[in-house]
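Subject: Ribosomal protein L22

B.,
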Amino acid sequence: MSRPLRALSLAHTLSGPSRPLARPLVVAAPPVLARNASWFKNIGFGLPETWRRNMKKGEEKEAVPEPQQGSVFDAVVEDKAEEVQAKRRPPPKDTRFKSAFRKMSHRKLNDIGRLVAGMPADEAILQLQFSEKRAARTWVKSTLAFARDHAVARGLRRDRLVVQEAWVAKGKKEARVDIKGRGRMGVKHHPRARIHFVLAEGKTWAEKREAADAKVLHKVRSAGVVREDGKLRRKVVSGWAW
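Prediction pasted inline below.
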């Protein structure tokens, strides 16, 4: 007699003398890839007794600091303020700047330096911008602008910056071949020079004008009331007596 398919499947799942139940599959636990912080306390389990005693003594000696009131960043801020105060330097009185050596005569460059010496920094840059000299419009103006920015970065006030000094230094002369006619040749020596600037805080033109006017006014003296009361000296006496 044939059995239905459902009965066969049910019979295989029931236990009996000839069909013991199969053992359930045991799934292995996944390997431990991370541990809690409390696991490290049991490291000394397999160590000798003397080592474990020393570890316990070290733990007992560690004292827990008392909690302090206030923010934890207060001490850091105070230390930083003290360091900044110690490192702070007084502002400089002046700043110096120089250009690179350029292919130019030191005599021609000296004329440009004499043009801007004594001027306010911004006024000197404006004069160089509209100068007839090509060097003044290009690299001399850029050098002075860099010097002004450098002085402002060091703490000097821009509205009181004055070109206190300007001088020229000579460099090495470059020797070049000068080809001439009829198989002749010569040597040309091209000069090199650079310019130095000293910027410092000084009086503006308005302050200089006021000081000059005050000096002129100080020289004026009033005639006073007794101007004509003095003796008449070197009196001219005519020869005619009538």
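The first strand starts at residue 94 and ends at 98.

T.
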